[in-house]
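seq:
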Amino acid sequence: MRLRVEFTTEPFDLDEAPAHALVAREVIEAAELDAVDVGPFGNTAEGGADEVLTAVDALLRRTLAAGATRISLQVNVLGEGDA
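struct:
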């Protein structure tokens, strides 16, 4: 099964990326995922279910520890032909 995760961390800071945002980027880029897109207002990544779920666990734990006060998260199951 393939999954797509979309997430944002808050609070936002338009002048400088907060520590939790940098940690989120680090977690997602280090995970064994593909189709990673990291941006200032939202992030997405795709991969196998185990890899995505492992990354989500690390993402939640590490960004909260780094000062995130809110994490918005959506996980979708990808069907054949979804990309």
